[in-house]
What does this fold into?
Amino acid sequence: MPKKIDHEERKIKILKTALDVFAKEGYRDSNLSLIAEECGLSRPTIYQYFKDKNEIFYYAVKLVTGIMFQRYGVIAWDSSYGDCLQRIEYICNDIIDEAVRNEGALQSLMDVMLQSKRDNIDFSQIIVKRTIKLTILFKRLLNAAIKDGEIPSCDVNKVSNHLFTLLEAFCFQIAFLGNFSASDSKDFIATYLGGYRKK
It folds into this structure.
């Protein structure tokens, strides 16, 4: 009896292997043959799942953001994580921790974006589209914080955009600069949010 293949598991294996290959070889020098060889699969098998390495990149972003937002959607409305501002801080800190833990993959993803930009392929809209939910989540939590009297009325659009921009900057530092301090970044987020808390 032939072994049943878990296609989603295989797709994730290909993805993880591809990210390793991108990190080792660079995105431009990577190809589906290299990825297939590292996976122990044939190139035609890889083509059953991904038509090219750009599609692998898109799937990586989709997978990571999907898992992230599923978890943060639960945390956002769970009062055991504290009040609304504490939940925002927890989510920001978790994103920083995840980025640090997955530094190599983050470097690969950013490398893909930079190399693609040079080749006139712009992945920024994919990133924006996949991460907009985080800004929306921040806005909802900030509105709830205003309603609960935790913070005075403020421009929730601006604050949520500030938080998102800070997280982007932290991810860039993690990927490209050797002097990133997770604890300093978390302190900065805490101070920023604390400035909105009612005295």
